[in-house]
Structures are given as structure tokens and as C-alpha cells.
Amino acid sequence: MALYTEQAARACLRVRDGKRVFYLGPGDHLTPSAREWLRREQVEILQGEQPRQRTYTTPGGGVLTEKPEHMTHLRENVLVPKDHPRIAFRGWIDAVEAELLLAQQAAHREGFGRLVEELEALLGFLRRLIRADVLGEPVAPWNLLGLSPAELREQSHYPQRYYNQSHFQPSWEDPAALLAVNRLRTVVRQAELAAYRAFRDPDGGVTREDILQALNRASSLCWILEIRLKAGYYKPQ
Question: Residue range 159-164: average pLDDT?
């Protein structure tokens, strides 16, 4: 049983014997505006189920029977333009994952097996954020490498207390793994900014503070990994 608005009726037109027709199934109804539009357009109303055809919707209430090339899935059958802020955010997460894999490769080449494993844990965490966005799920309580969000913030702000290593400016002379993690950190920061653009409300607040916090702490973790590398925390294997 369905109620067809004018817009839905337009989307469900079919062609039979060269003429446009509309199938109205048992128990289905048309709104007055839909019925008037069909009459005005001289579309014959036939009894019978609508042939199954996939339809897409847009956040503004539009209905599409084909997926345009300039649009992509926001969730399920909801389409948005490819420059939509949520899609841009997902693209930045892709970029973070790409940089993370390169950082793992650099760490492996230098024999830092433990760092490779820790970056793998970060990779799994970041992939959970995309799932939380697409499915509209909250980010479950988490820690990274045994550190809570508060502990990550603390250690990234005061590395001297935990690793006997002060803040520093990376140099070309640093190990390739450190420079790769440093670059990863900057891309995580860009993903965080993209997330803010994607989830901010008209008043400047955010609707997904859990995702923003997760990305902020992910960049903190990257800085902690750089600190550990500088301090000689990782031993080549």
C-alpha cells in the first residue's frame, strides 16, 4: 500500500505501447495533486503493481530513477553531489589511510616492527569512523594503544614527562619512519577540518563531536609516535 505524491508519480511513470502510463496497485492511492498532474499530462492510470525499479532520493526530497555521474551515495539509496561535505570528509579519510600505509612501509624498512603494529591499530580505528558516519552510529568508547582520549592529550602536550623528550621540529635528517608519521599527522589534521565542515551546524557547533574528538586524538597519537621515534623508544628488529 502506497501513497503517491506528484513527485513520486512522476518518478514511477512507465511506457506501454509508446504511451506513458502509471500503474496503481491494489490499495495504493494518489494525492489530489498527483492525480491532477497525471490527468493534465494525459497519462493513463492502469490497475496493477508498479514494475520494480530502483529509485534514489536526495536529502531535499527529490526522487531519481537513475544515478547521475555527478552524484554518489550518502547512505543506502540517498544520493548527494560528489562535492558534498560528508563525501569530502570520507575522501580525506581515504587520504589518511593511504598515508598510513606508506608510514607502515617506512617503519617496516627501518625495522620498527612494533611501530608497524601500532599504526595498524590506528588504521582499524580510522576505518571505524567511516562506518559510524555512513550508518549514523555513535563512535563506541575507545582507547588507542591502551591510552584513553584524556591520556593521549596529556602525553602529546607534555612528552618530557613520559618519554624524556621535549617538543621538536622535524628535520630532513630524521629517520624516514618519523617523517612519514609526521606527514600522516598533517593529513589527519586536514581530515579533522573536513569533518568539522561536514558536521557543523548553523550556529558553529557540531553534530558529530565524537568523530571530531576521535580525529583530534588520532593526530595526538601521531605526535606521540614521533616523540617515541625521536626518543629512541623503538628498537630496530
Answer: 96
